[in-house]
Amino acid sequence: MKKLALLFVVFCFFLKPHAQEVSPILFIYDASGSMWGKLEDRTKKEIAADVLAETVGNLPENQDVGLLAYGHRKKGDCDDIEYLVDLKNHSKAKIINGVKEINPLGKTPLARSATIAINSLKENKTKATIILITDGIESCDGDICDVVSKAKLEGIEFKLHIVGFGLKEGEKEQLKCAANAGNGSYHDAANASGLQEVLTEATSQTVDGPKGNFSIYATKNEQPVDAWVRAYKKGTKEEVDAGRTYRDTSFLYLPPGKYDLQIQPLENTRIKGTSLTVESIEGRMGHETVSFDGGKINIITLNNGEGWDCTSKIMTKSGEVVGGSRTYGRPKIIEVNAGVYDIELVALRIKGLHTTYKIEDVEVQSGKTVEAKHEFKSGIALISVSGGGALVDATVNIKDKNANKGVTGGRTYTSPNNNPKEFILNPGVYEVALKALTEGFRGKSETFTMEIKQGETFTKTINF
């Protein structure tokens, strides 16, 4: 038995742990003649080569990377497509040097390039993340969306991201269709920094990662809006996933549970970000269409059933203040972006420990009005001070007895307009301390306890 145990220990010592499989990334590179066009005083070829080199250089050491290029050898040849670096390549330098040596010449055979890339996966019985970078649309016969859709029906496993580099509106539909069919995303890049950003994101969303199970679509005035989406575990700052809509749909992977989503537009700076709480359910595809069209909150503040003047502060779930106003005792309608908010109300003139109230998780939907209502409670204390047949000026300090905390104070003065002194207080038990200031009574003091009841008036006269 001891020998068996020893053999087991020796076996475990020499057994190497199985490394987690990391599928290759294949870049399909646009070497068509239009890559000599300029952006920011540099050719798109130079920008793409530099950015791709930096992106590849930042990939993990165990990441295999391949490179396929089209249009780099002949003008007008739709079959000018070549694997420059094989998928099993471990060398980042091969990719970087290969891109720098490319001389853009030819056409843009997107469908044929995708076919060659996908067929190589099928032949090698492997899966991969494919990232296609193009500055133009299909210029040969073929439909890349159709190619990708049919490959998926065959069960070929891959994820396709497409980066449109300097493309115009109206040139992207087929590319978006292909990316969607390939379980990936379409990304726009207008300059070097934009290209770096989207390539970083694309290389992080690989075929090895869990498939998105929650989609987000953002709009303003019924038009799609490019926006960042970040998901946090509900009530925390722990980020679970993030993505970008690119005026289309962003897919996140959210394990079963509740999440706070922060959605921040990346265009039209007049649009403010918004937030909402969602739930991801096992085995179900979740979706939210986020409209940046305004919804309305009808804030109603009462005191003992009557309208009461209060201040309001509307905050996102992350604590950002997005609106607020005084109610002046009347319903107050405030327009904000659609989302989920907390509303902090502060009652004016009422004193005590319950003059602030937070209404949580008020959901505002675009084009709709939601009511946010709260009723405060109070009673009145009338405190009069006199002596020798005349009114006496005295300081008044009121403390909540149970909490042993001061809540308000004042002076009675010697005018009948202010003596008795009126205090509007939350219901409760209070300790009152008086100290006379009028000559002849200066220094005299008195204390007493009073109970304030909702809607009732407590009257007390102190005669020095």
UniProtKB/TrEMBL annotation:
Pfam families cross-referenced by the UniProt entry: VWA_2
Q: Which UniProt keywords apply?
A: Signal
Signal sequence coordinates: 1-19
According to the entry, every stretch annotated as the VWFA domain falls at 24-207
Q: What InterPro entries does the annotation carry?
A: VWF_A (IPR002035), vWFA_dom_sf (IPR036465)
Say which domain of life the source belongs to: Bacteria
Q: Please state what the protein is called.
A: VWA domain-containing protein
Task: Name the species this protein comes from.
Answer: Tamlana crocina
